[in-house]
Amino acid sequence: MTMNDFNKIFANYVDEINKAAAYYVSADAFKGRESSGLEAMLDAMAYSLGNGGKRIRPVLTLEFCRLCGGDYRAAIPFAIGAEMIHTYSLIHDDLPCMDNDDMRRGKPSSHKVYGEANALLAGDGLLTLAFETVLSADVSADKKAKAALELAKAAGVSGMIGGQVMDLSNEGKKVSLDEIRATDRLKTGEMIRVAAVMGCIAAGADSEKIAAAEKYCENIGLAFQIVDDILDVTSDDATLGKPVGSDSQNRKSTYVSHLGVEKSSEYARQITEEAKAALDIFGSEGEFLSELADRLSERKN
Amino acid sequence: MTMNDFNKIFANYVDEINKAAAYYVSADAFKGRESSGLEAMLDAMAYSLGNGGKRIRPVLTLEFCRLCGGDYRAAIPFAIGAEMIHTYSLIHDDLPCMDNDDMRRGKPSSHKVYGEANALLAGDGLLTLAFETVLSADVSADKKAKAALELAKAAGVSGMIGGQVMDLSNEGKKVSLDEIRATDRLKTGEMIRVAAVMGCIAAGADSEKIAAAEKYCENIGLAFQIVDDILDVTSDDATLGKPVGSDSQNRKSTYVSHLGVEKSSEYARQITEEAKAALDIFGSEGEFLSELADRLSERKN
Question: For the segment B241-266, what is each residue's pLDDT rounded down to a tens digit?
Fold first, then answer.
């Protein structure tokens, strides 16, 4: 796959995702259910959902659906559901009682724009709307119920939320490499995993393919975190788009504080190869995701 | 139906609800999915979910399931899902950035016990677990998907959350009776309605029965609010279990501030009769819910 081909496919996915994301938080999507409260919430939800990050999770949903023989368009509501959960978690994470971050991706965070109460409710709204969106998909009731159940488990207290709690309690403590891995696996890993799994479910994939998707995601998720830690010490504010050095300033235990930059890089490269190996059962069709794994491990921001 | 019969049925439902609620936030329910983060959350979620209110919503789920010819036990996960959403909304409502309430049902509110960050996350956790619980029910995928979708719509930005936003923006303003009704219909009415509708769905009820359930709920929900407003001016702290006079202190527009106590009481009685009339299609089987409507309108706290 040429760089150009990859970029085209990726850009097409992101375009579809951005269009769908905008629709699901628009007045059009709520015809006949209007209220003054809804209006205020749509505005706040659209602000955060539109302030797009890399859209890795929804891209995984769409590509795994295609890779498992489905029409990726059928999986768009699943993809948006995953992105809504990711977005709500950032809104709540930024609140003063959590990380107290005034900025998110170069823009004022939700509570700086809409106030704390509305940011809290917009987060609740996106979390709830994620399930409405997944359950409104034009696929069988069986697939919808399965995808929504997986999403609830991954996003919940035994998944992402559990990881957030662990992250909060790790603050200011010396944390072992195993504990860091366990925290990341839940805090970010579970939502990456379930985004891919929902794509597989949309395509009616068998358990072998779902297991391959999970293995791929586990490894790119971990590599993603390691690269994050490396960039925090090797990058600069302008390239990274946020202040570097925050981990050491917060005396946070990271892969880098445990292994150093060089060994961390080696580790990231190694698990990126493991991620790519998990794609073997898809043959040459796995090329896009193989390239994606490389890109994520070589990224500069 | 004698007072004794009603009390027995009600107590049996509440007993089943309390047992199931305790189970769904216990370590047993999460076997094989343990983490240190999960443990902290289960504790906080159990604290609030166990601090039972009247359990009106889940009782409606179970009784409407029975009334529509189903086995009410099949609807227990739907009933608990509704109660989890109700509970999360109270936890978030009590947070300092919202109503800033230190007490809830005579006990310290969640953030006073667990801190703001954990209370926020416990609320998120209950909201997410509500969907996991509904989608884990032992009924057809079709019923699960339908119930979870209805729940998401009722709890979301065009439902309960939209009503919360309206309530926040009504604060300190003179609000018309129509606006009060519109706010209450979303803020509390939608969750009461969907609790009943999920019971109907569990039983496979037809649209005529679902419409009757909705009509009953709309009226008892409205009556409930009116009685709340009346008790705030006619009761005393000890009987009510919370400080009276808060509405006038907050200069809140209420049914009573618009209509006075006497006309409000009359209005509550009138719509309670409308609620009971909606039960006609169920014949003598509707007796329990008819009695429930009377009890709610005559309650002293």
Answer: 777 888 888 788 999 999 999 999 99
Enumerate residues 6+ apart whose C-beta is below 8 A from A161.
A155, B37, B41, B121, B124, B125, B128
Instruction: Choose from A94, A135, A167 for mutation: most chain B CBs within 10 A.
Output: A135
For B103, the 3-state DSSP assignment is strand
Q: Bridge-partner residues for A107, per DSSP?
A: A104
User: What are the structure tokens assigned to A186, written together?
Assistant: 């839940």
A233-251 per-position pLDDT tens digit: 999 888 887 778 888 888 8
Residues 6+ apart with CB under 8 A from A154: A160, A190, A191, A193, A194
The H or E element spanning position A43 is helix A36-50
Cβ contact, residue pair B156, A121, below 8 Å: no
The interaxial angle of helices B3-24 and B76-94, nearest 10 deg, is 70
Helix (H) or strand (E) holding B116: helix B116-135
Residues of chain B with pLDDT under 50: none
Beta strands in B49-172 (DSSP E): 103-104, 107-108
Burial class (CB in 10 A: 0-12, 13-18, 19+), A183: buried
Q: Which residues contact B256 (CB under 8 A, 6 or more apart)?
A: B229, B230, B232, B233, B247, B264
What lies within 8 Å, CB to CB, of B260 at 6+ separation is: none
Q: Is B92 on the interface with A (CB under 8 A)?
A: yes
Q: What is the rounded CA–CA span in Å between residue A206 and residue A204?
A: 7
Interface of B with A in 128-167 (CB under 8 A): 128-129, 131-132, 135-136, 140-142, 144-146, 148-149, 151-153, 155-158, 161-166
Residues B222, B189 contacting (CB under 8 angstroms): yes
Q: What is the pLDDT of residues A139-163, one digit of tens each?
A: 999 999 999 999 999 999 999 999 9
Q: Supply the pLDDT for residue B42.
A: 98
Q: Letter for the amino acid at A169? A: S
* DSSP-based helix, strand, coil % in chain A, nearest 5: 75, 0, 20
pLDDT digit string (tens) for B201-239? 999 999 999 999 999 999 999 999 999 999 999 998 888
The pLDDT mean for chain B works out to: 96
Helix, strand and coil in chain B, % to nearest 5: 75, 0, 20
Read off the tokens for B173: 């303003």
User: Which region among A72-76, A201-205, B30-34, B249-253 has the lowest average model confidence (pLDDT)?
Assistant: B249-253
Q: Which chain A residues contact residue B156 at CB under 8 A? A: 125, 128-129, 132
* Length of chain B as a residue count: 301
